[in-house]
Amino acid sequence: MASTVNFEMELDQEHDLPYLAADLEQSLRLIERTLGIDASFRGHKVMFKGEQAFVDKAVELLLDLRDIRSEGYNVYPDDLRSMLELIKGGGDLTLKELMSQHVAVSKKKRLIAPRNRSQMEYIKAIRDKDMVFGIGPAGTGKTYIAMAMAVNALLTKQVSRVILARPAVEAGEKLGFLPGDMIEKVSPYLRPLYDALYDMVEVEKANRLIDRGVIEVAPLAFMRGRTLNDAFIVLDEAQNTTHEQMKMYLTRLGYSSKTVITGDITQIDLPQGKASGLVEAERILSSVEGVGVVYFTGHDVVRHKLVKDIIRAYDRHERRAEK
Prior knowledge:
Layout: E1 4-10, H1 17-20, H2 24-35, E2 38-42, E3 45-51, H3 52-70, H4 77-88, H5 95-99, E4 103-104, E5 111-112, H6 117-128, E6 131-135, H7 142-155, E7 161-166, H8 182-200, H9 203-211, E8 215-219, E9 231-235, H10 243-250, E10 258-263, H11 277-285, E11 291-295, H12 305-322
Parallel strand pairs: 6-10, 6-11, 7-8, 7-9, 9-10
Antiparallel strand pairs: 1-3, 2-3, 4-5
Helix pairs in contact: 2-4, 3-4, 6-7, 7-8, 10-11
């Protein structure tokens, strides 16, 4: 039986409170719910009561939160929640370690920070290698982080343009005839990429960059015949590429360019009998120098908690069906 301890933490009015006071109560409620310890505050004091290891982690978390915010960066409730879940699960990472791998996506210190070890390894791989495959289920941040790295590379002038591509494949349903010109027809398939982009860059600024061709959002078919120099290219939903499409795409990479290819090999929407280009590329290229492959699992889901539970339930169902 773990021993219960009481601990009081005195908050300094000049060095602590300016960075913790605004959402201190919300942070303490998160700590209580996730770690199962009592957390409260009165005046300038924060009180913890519970298992020693979790109390120590809660104190460390608040101090990391103070230090990060004192440098002018924001830490959002979802970041704290993910960090607390890692602590509860026995993880040895700290909030400061995760935030050290942050990705800046605006000059206003808007940060995208990894929320687990897989995301941290993914960011490191993208920084170190010119071609990275991010493979895993929905909700693990594969595309979002790749987009953040692309925006950051543009912001820091590592590349002169960003290209976001996706195969135009219907996800298990027939949409039938779509009105409009070619761009209007493929736009619904590219909407998720626009959504992620607008979440990181102000809409007006993003649209200006798109109009100037600095950021291009295009269906995969538009890549044919091009050589992409000085660019950061993200290929999303790559599990829905064919052998021919994937080979075509991979050979577009030009000088001073980097690409991230994301996909979920459990959700392939290709016609029956068509092999996934992502599955094949993973098998062929995983040992090639300069190519990185990062795998995500259901444990890495960072969307609503229910999404993680849904993925696990489907995995159990599919394993039973295979027996």
